[in-house]
Amino acid sequence: MATYDHRLSDGGPVAEAVESAAVRVNGLTRSFGDRQVLRNVDLTLARGEFTALLGRSGSGKSTLLRAVAGLDHTTVGTGEILVPRRVSLVFQDSRLLPWLRILDNVVLGLPGDDARERGRAALDEVSLGGRASAWPHELSGGEQQRAALARSLVSEPELLLADEPFGSLDALTRIRMHRLLRRLYERHRPAVLLVTHDVDEAVTLADRVLVLDDGDFVLDLRIDLPADRDPGDPLFQRHRTTLLGALGALPDDRTKDTEEPS
Ligand SMILES: Nc1ncnc2c1ncn2[C@@H]1O[C@H](COP(=O)(O)OP(=O)(O)OP(=O)(O)O)[C@@H](O)[C@H]1O
Ligand SMILES: [Mg+2]
């Protein structure tokens, strides 16, 4: 039975608390059996901020994301989580409903007389305007993820939560998806919390990268690079080395190269 509070930002003092922040997490703990996966985690995400969350497998990234999404009501835990009203989710698989055509998937649950029009515009944004009446199984994996992105953004969320959304795509498609996500982000400006295993993906996309280890953050790194990032840029490489160091993925002789977090 959950003992935590998951509250929306549409009432009294809570709305005030999240005015400048899209997400505020205080003292979050989560346990499975005797195993405490999150230990007293605090997290503030500014409005419109793009944050990537890295961590080893099993470090609790998805547990944190699910808690912020309010999807873990059967989990034991404590803490307070404040989120905006409009939150969207994207996962590693597209979760398109197989019995609905692509446009119907995108507009499912979307209120308003103009829902279909907005759905078509969202599909245009991900270059799937011509596939509105296709079935999900007729789309490639990358196209399905593009449809999932359209579905997540059509409601103009204030917060986009993404759990390894490109994890099952091939390297080339993933690079295209990075450009698309960054473009969509710049157009819609939700706060983003992107869980990824991929250090390059984090440095390519995010303005801030958090590293989770042993139940709490061990690094909070600001990425001061231009929007159009070049992996050959020495600062890109430094951030990469720092993050690999925090993940314990550097040979011992290179750990001295890592920078202090900003
Ligand atoms: N429903 C559950 N029941 C029991 N244990 C769970 C459950 N969900 C997660 N765990 C455990 O909690 C820990 C953190 O899991 P979580 O899925 O958050 O990790 P992760 O960082 O997302 O890993 P990955 O990178 O492999 O996706 C793991 O040890 C996992 O086995
Ligand atoms: Mg996970």
Please summarize what this structure is.
The protein is of the alpha/beta class. Helices cover 32% and strands 26% of the residues. The radius of gyration is 19 Å and the shape is globular.
Question: How is this structure best described in words?
Answer:
This protein is 32% helix and 26% strand. It has eight helices and ten strands. The chain has helices at residues 12-17, 61-69, 102-107, 115-125, 141-153, 171-188, 199-205, 234-246, and strands at residues 5-8, 21-32, 35-46, 50-55, 76-83, 87-90, 159-163, 191-195, 208-213, 216-222. The radius of gyration is 19 Å and the shape is globular. The relative contact order is 0.15. Bound molecules: adenosine-5'-triphosphate and magnesium ion. Magnesium ion (MG) binds at residues 61-62, 163. Adenosine-5'-triphosphate (ATP) is lined by residues 32, 37, 55, 57-63, 197.
Helix-strand sequence: EHEEEHEEHHHEHEHEEH
Beta fraction:
25-35%
Which sheet architecture does the biggest sheet show? Answer: 6 strands, mixed
Number of extended strands: 10
Bound molecules: adenosine-5'-triphosphate, magnesium ion
User: Largest beta sheet: what is the strand line-up?
Assistant: 6-7-8-4-9-10
Which structural class matches the secondary elements?
alpha/beta
| Helical amount | 25-40%
Low-confidence stretches: none
